[in-house]
Amino acid sequence: xxxxxxxxxxxxxxxxxYALQFGExxxxxxxxxxxxxxxxxxEFGISTASEAGGRRNNxxxxxxxxxxxxxxxxxxxxxxxxxxxxxxxEHGSQLACYAALTVLLQSYxxxxxPNAQPIEQCLKYFSKLGTKVGEYAxxxxxxxxxxxxxxxxxxxxxxxxxxLMVAWEDDRGLTIEGIGDGGYIxxxxxxxxxxxxxxxxxxxxxxxxxxxxxRDFRIEVQHWESLAxxxxxxxxxxSMEGLIVPTNAAKEENLxxxxxxxxxxxxxxxxxxxxxLLTAARRHQx
Length: 286
Known about the structure:
44% of the residues are buried. The N and C termini lie far apart (61 Å). The protein has a six-stranded antiparallel β-sheet with strand order 1-4-5-6-7-10, covered by helices on one side. It has a six-stranded antiparallel β-sheet with strand order 2-3-12-11-8-9, with helices on one face. The chain has a single domain, classed as PPM-type phosphatase domain (Phosphatase 2c, domain 1, 4-Layer Sandwich). It has helices spanning 7-29, 89-110, 118-135, 137-140, 147-156, 235-241, 255-266, and strands spanning 30-34, 37-41, 44-51, 60-67, 73-82, 162-170, 173-179, 183-187, 192-195, 217-221, 226-230, 275-282. It is globular and about 60 Å long. By secondary structure, the chain is an alpha+beta fold. Residues 57-235 form the PPM-type phosphatase domain. InterPro entries: PPM-type-like_dom_sf (IPR036457), PPM-type_phosphatase-like_dom (IPR001932). This is PPM-type phosphatase domain-containing protein. Pfam families: PP2C_2. It comes from Bythopirellula goksoeyrii.
C-alpha cells in the first residue's frame, strides 16, 4: 500500500503536477528539451545549460520547444529563476517555463491574428494558482511552517515565485519578453542590443500573491543573427567579459554549456548564484 504524501511534499507535488500537465500538452505538438542540451532546428542552433553555481540547490529552469510538424512558431524557449526567499521556488520556475510556452502556442492555435502575451498570461495564471492553493491551505501547509507562518506566506504569495524570460521565432521575426532581473544580448544586422538589469533591491516576478504586475520588457525584431538569454547569476560575468554567440559554431557544440564553464572557471569570485544560459544562433549556408 502506498503511503499518502507528507504535508511537506503536497505543495511541491501539486506544482510538479501542473507542470506535467502543461508538458503533456506541449509534447503533443512538438519536442521538449529541458535544462541542458543542444538542438538543431531548421536554420537555428539552440543551446541551454544550467548550473547551481555558488548555491547548494539550483532553483533555475529552462525549456525549449521545437515543432514536430509545420507550425507558425519555429521554436520557443523560456528560462526562469526561482526567487531565493520564496518556498518551493524551484518548482515555481519549472512551472513558469512550461506554462509560458503552453499559453504562447495556444494563442497561435486559437487566434486568427496571434498577439501572444505569455508573460501577462502567466501573471494571471500564478494569481489563480495562489487562489487555488489558498482554498486547500490546511491540506497543503508544509510541515516546516507553523499555521501562522503559512498564513503569512499565502498572504504575501511567497511560494513558487520566479522570474521569467520567453523568446520565440515566427514568420514575423523574433520576440522576447521578460519579467524580473534576467538579461539578454541580441545581435542584429548592426549593433547588438543588450539588457543587463541590476539585481539590487526588490525584483519583479511571477507571484501567487494576486498582485498582477506587468512585464519588464518586450522586444520584437524582424532580422537577427544570435541571441543569449541568462539569469541574473550570469550577469556579473557578462558585464566583465561580454558575450558573443557565434553563428558559425560547430553544429553539435553546446555554446551555452561551454560559455558557462568558462565563466565558472574564470570568474568564480563573481558567481554566487545559480546560473542559466540559453543561446540561439541563425545558421548561414556555407
